[in-house]
Design brief:
Helix content: 25-40%
Organism: Paenibacillus kribbensis
Protein name: ATP-grasp domain-containing protein
Distance between the termini: 5 Å
Number of helices: 12
Strand content: 25-35%
Number of strands: 15
CATH topology of the largest domain: D-amino Acid Aminotransferase, Chain A, domain 1
Number of domains: 3
CATH class of the largest domain: Alpha Beta
Shape: globular
CATH architecture of the largest domain: 2-Layer Sandwich
Pfam families: R2K_3
Domain ATP-grasp: 146-303
Length: 313
């Protein structure tokens, strides 16, 4: 199993500094690693960038295997589904098969694709495509929430650190406020906008503290990494505050995970003030971040064991 990490933007032979510690731990545990140039991956004309996209050491490894493919996973910055599809198709021509297909990547990376699977366990949500971001569509979507509080995000991320300005809406029936927050969200996202927007019912979670910079409420949230439908690692979501590790029965979440059409993904969960466990969202495991306090050796050991048990090492 090969792990492909993003290289330093200014030095293609060095790992991106934000992934350096992960890269070093993965190497120490015996993973075959390679570096890929993120800027070249997201270029439109990928065909001319093959030498940068297929790491030399992996090309050498492939040459020794004849016509066999090698399996790989990516650990790096988020890619649009379109860029990921083009990149994985190119890698396939070089006999590198990403364990997560382009379809699987989109299934977990874009909220509207995963929402039907987690709908029973997540706050009610309405998704609007980019061409639906008109006053009429936004107001109609907000009406379905009555006077409930809302959160705004795109198909991948929120602007939770712009909490009051571009994320939280205290009353969905205040149409002027709804549209102002949505418009500000779109403005701030700019070129980084992923798909359309999602309006989500705001649910009060078990409160910990307010974020020291943005003032957003921090709650007991946890990130679970799944491999082939099984939970392999769980970590507290927030670095800004200490809280106990989760002691929850994950049976319902594991049942849902079995329906997710991806080999490697994350599930963010949280506990409400009423004591109910809910799913916040799913994410692709390759581009889901690890908090700074994460025990990286434990994470990559768990990943290695899952791959070995599957016969992919």
């Amino acid at each position: 199993m090969h792990l492909l990490f993003c290289s330093d933007p200014l030095d293609s032979k060095s790992v991106d500094m934000d992934y350096r510690e992960e890269y070093e731990v993965a190497c120490s545990l015996g993973f075959d690693t390679g570096l890929v140039n993120f800027d070249h991956i997201i270029q439109d004309e990928l065909a001319g960038a093959a030498p940068f996209i297929v790491p030399k050491r992996i090309r050498e490894h492939i040459a020794k295997r004849g016509n066999e493919h090698v399996n790989a996973l990516y650990r790096g910055w988020m890619l649009s589904p379109k860029a990921y599809e083009a990149w994985t198709a190119l890698l396939e021509t070089h006999r590198i098969r990403m364990l997560t297909s382009a379809k699987s990547y989109r299934n977990c990376h874009y909220f509207p694709d995963s929402y039907p699977i987690i709908q029973e366990f997540t706050p009610r949500s309405v998704c609007l495509e980019r061409n639906q971001l008109t006053t009429e569509y936004i107001q109609e979507a907000a009406k379905s929430f009555g006077a409930s509080a809302l959160m705004v995000k795109d198909f991948v991320k929120s602007r939770k650190h712009d909490w009051l300005e571009a994320c939280y809406i205290p009353d969905a029936s205040d149409q002027e406020h709804v549209e102002r927050v949505v418009r500000r969200f779109v403005e701030l996202q700019g070129a980084e906008m992923n798909g359309g927007i999602v309006l989500r019912e705001f649910v009060n979670l078990e409160f910990l503290t307010n974020h020291p910079k943005s003032g957003m409420p921090l709650s007991k949230e946890y990130r679970i990494f799944f491999m082939f439908g099984e939970p392999i690692f769980m970590v507290n979501y927030w670095d800004e505050v200490a809280y106990e590790e989760v002691r929850s029965d994950l049976e319902d979440f594991i049942k849902i995970a079995a329906q997710v059409r991806s080999p490697f993904f994350t599930m963010d969960i949280a506990r409400t003030q009423a004591g109910q466990w809910i799913i916040i969202e799913l994410g692709d495991g390759q581009v889901s971040g690890l908090p700074e306090h994460t025990d990286l050796e434990a994470f990559y050991t768990s990943l290695k064991n899952a791959v070995v048990n599957r016969g992919l090492w």
